[in-house]
């Protein structure tokens, strides 16, 4: 029996995408200035990092905030959206950018906080390898791992 594309258990609905490495899931997160997680979002592996950025940021009042991100988040649309929300950003331009902007490289060094958080929760093999078939089960365990790391 063929699987329906819009069925609840279909890979597309489980945020499983095909990228160079095979079937993968990307976990996007937003952390505060101390590296504590604020929000999570799952996408398929083929989705570019900048696509879910606005979805994550829309959950918060950014007024007076400073957003740090890597080159993948340097699109004009994201930068314009952040400044429209009365926030500032430190995102380096890509090498081939037509209109590069000035970056505070000293402040940019703090963007490692996201990677540090991912390293903490990847100690849980269930998060690092995504054993769960359902996206809601995987995301639930990501929350459990984050809570465990925050309390220990």
TrEMBL record:
<dbReference type="GO" id="GO:0004803">
    <property type="term" value="F:transposase activity"/>
</dbReference>
<dbReference type="GO" id="GO:0003677">
    <property type="term" value="F:DNA binding"/>
</dbReference>
<dbReference type="GO" id="GO:0006313">
    <property type="term" value="P:DNA transposition"/>
</dbReference>
<dbReference type="Pfam" id="PF01609">
    <property type="entry name" value="DDE_Tnp_1"/>
</dbReference>
<feature type="domain" description="Transposase IS4-like">
    <location>
        <begin position="23"/>
        <end position="97"/>
    </location>
</feature>
<protein>
    <submittedName>
        <fullName>Transposase</fullName>
    </submittedName>
</protein>
<dbReference type="InterPro" id="IPR002559">
    <property type="entry name" value="Transposase_11"/>
</dbReference>
């Amino acid at each position: 029996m063929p699987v329906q594309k819009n069925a609840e258990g279909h890979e597309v609905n489980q945020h499983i995408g095909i990228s160079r490495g095979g079937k993968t899931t990307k976990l996007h997160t937003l952390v505060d200035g101390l590296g504590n997680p604020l929000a999570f979002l799952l996408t398929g592996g083929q989705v570019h990092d900048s696509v879910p950025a606005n979805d994550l940021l829309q959950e918060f009042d950014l007024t007076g905030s400073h957003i740090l991100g890597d080159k993948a988040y340097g699109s004009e649309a994201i930068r314009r959206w952040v400044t429209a929300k009365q926030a500032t950003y430190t995102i380096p331009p890509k090498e081939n950018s037509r209109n590069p902007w000035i970056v505070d490289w000293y402040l940019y060094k703090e963007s490692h906080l996201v990677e540090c958080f991912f390293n903490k929760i990847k100690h849980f093999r269930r998060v690092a390898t995504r054993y769960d078939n359902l996206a809601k089960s995987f995301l639930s365990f990501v929350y459990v791992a984050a809570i465990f790391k925050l309390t220990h």
